[in-house]
Please model this.
Amino acid sequence: MSKKATGHLAALVTILIWGTTFISTKVLLVDFEPIEILFFRFILGFLALLIVYPHRMKGTTKRQEAVFAAAGLCGVCLYYLLENIALTYTMASNVGVIISIAPFFTAMLTHLFTKEEKLRANFFIGFVVAMVGICLISFNGAKMQLNPIGGLLAVAAAVVWACYSVLTRKISGYQSS
Model:
């Protein structure tokens, strides 16, 4: 299998797993607190990374370690904690739709902090069209019931995920495994 095909397959598996997290977390919230789910998710992720790369990383600077820590805080801890708590206040479909604004925040933060992204009208038009499509698919005629606390927590999770995305982009430039 070519590297391109392997990459596409990995992306497909990631999408399938990611797409089920809102519903599975909502089910888990019946028996567990959001912080417990976060802890178990962290342990599973840590063990998976340990299996994939069982060595300590060498040759990193204190600044790079700080960026790694910030990415871990945003992408593992804060994002999932905010998402899990949001799911206790509102429906999984609402959280799923709200979280889908993360690419919008990612583009905005990338533009602000790296100056690599130019934001044009097409970006904003595409964002609106994508959001309308996501809403149509997610709600499919069902009544949307918003809870302000759940909605705000989901928006906060999307912003935190955007921070994580910008940090991982920076990390990808470190040329480390």
